[in-house]
């Protein structure tokens, strides 16, 4: 069997799950292609027997950048394609998959498995952020590896395993996500750089929405921020500020983004 994994990862946590999921499918004799939606390549989805999609959840829902990609780039399949959806987040709470499952169903993709993986907290600019301990991270990884192994077996044996939420809860999550993310772009004005910035342009090149520019040796943040905070975590000088403050960098999986 040949499958494809499509994903978006801001801090590297989702990419970690992608890599481990890939390894588990390969152990079970599958062949997989893996692509980030940032690659902007043309794909022939009819060449695959199954689909896996993964993303970091934004307020219990799918980030708009990923939802739009699936809706606009995933073509209708003449053959029904079994599909797995997973999300990652710092809280072990349900994710609203109802909207994306509806889109996939219309394109003849049958969702067999949905799963939210609890991962280390990477949102270091939150005023209530608590640094992950090594024990917490180790425990999380051990748990996710077991969950991935079980999910892949269920998926390949066509056992439906879904984390379901009710319709009212789905509407609530959708509205909360829409309300809390509609003005994300305004946060761009809260980012800046300090004198440690050496204009290496890593942030410019790695921003998934091309929100950062180097203009006349000045780093400028535009108005297309999605608050993934990849720039802050990647900066080798920790020179990126938020609200004029320096924040801890989340380095646990960030190397997976640039490798």
Automatic annotation (TrEMBL):
Keywords: Iron, Iron-sulfur, Metal-binding
Residues covered by the 4Fe-4S ferredoxin-type domain: 189-213, 216-245
InterPro entries: 4Fe4S_Fe-S-bd (IPR017896), 4Fe4S_Fe_S_CS (IPR017900), EFR1-like (IPR047964), Flavodoxin_dom (IPR026816), Flavoprotein-like_sf (IPR029039)
Keyword Iron: yes
GO molecular function: iron-sulfur cluster binding; metal ion binding
Pfam families found in the cross-reference section: Fer4_10, Flavodoxin_5
Keyword Iron-sulfur: yes
Protein name as catalogued: NADH-plastoquinone oxidoreductase subunit
Source organism of this protein record: Clostridium tertium
């Amino acid at each position: 069997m040949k499958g494809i994994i499509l994903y978006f990862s801001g801090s590297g946590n989702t990419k970690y799950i992608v890599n481990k999921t890939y390894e588990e499918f390969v152990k079970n004799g599958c062949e997989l292609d893996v692509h980030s939606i940032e690659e902007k390549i043309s794909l022939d989805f009819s060449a695959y027997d199954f689909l896996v999609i993964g993303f970091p959840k934004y307020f219990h829902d799918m980030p708009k950048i990923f939802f739009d990609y699936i809706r606009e780039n995933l073509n209708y399949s003449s053959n029904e394609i079994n599909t797995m959806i997973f999300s990652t987040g710092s809280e072990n709470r349900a994710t609203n998959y109802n909207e994306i499952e509806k889109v996939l169903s219309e394109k003849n993709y049958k969702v067999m498995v949905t799963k939210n993986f609890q991962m280390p907290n990477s949102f270091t600019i939150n005023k209530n952020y608590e640094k992950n301990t090594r024990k917490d991270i180790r425990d999380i990884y051990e748990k996710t590896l077991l969950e991935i192994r079980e999910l892949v077996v269920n998926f390949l044996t066509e056992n439906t395993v879904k984390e379901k939420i009710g319709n009212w809860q789905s509407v609530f999550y959708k509205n909360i996500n829409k309300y809390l993310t509609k003005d994300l772009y305004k946060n761009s004005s809260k980012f800046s750089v300090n004198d440690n910035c050496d204009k290496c342009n890593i942030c410019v090149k790695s921003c998934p929405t091309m929100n950062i520019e180097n203009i006349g040796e000045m780093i400028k943040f535009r108005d297309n921020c999605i608050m993934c905070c990849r720039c802050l975590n990647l900066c080798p000088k920790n020179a990126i500020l938020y609200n004029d403050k320096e924040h801890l960098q989340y380095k646990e999986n960030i190397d997976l983004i640039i490798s």
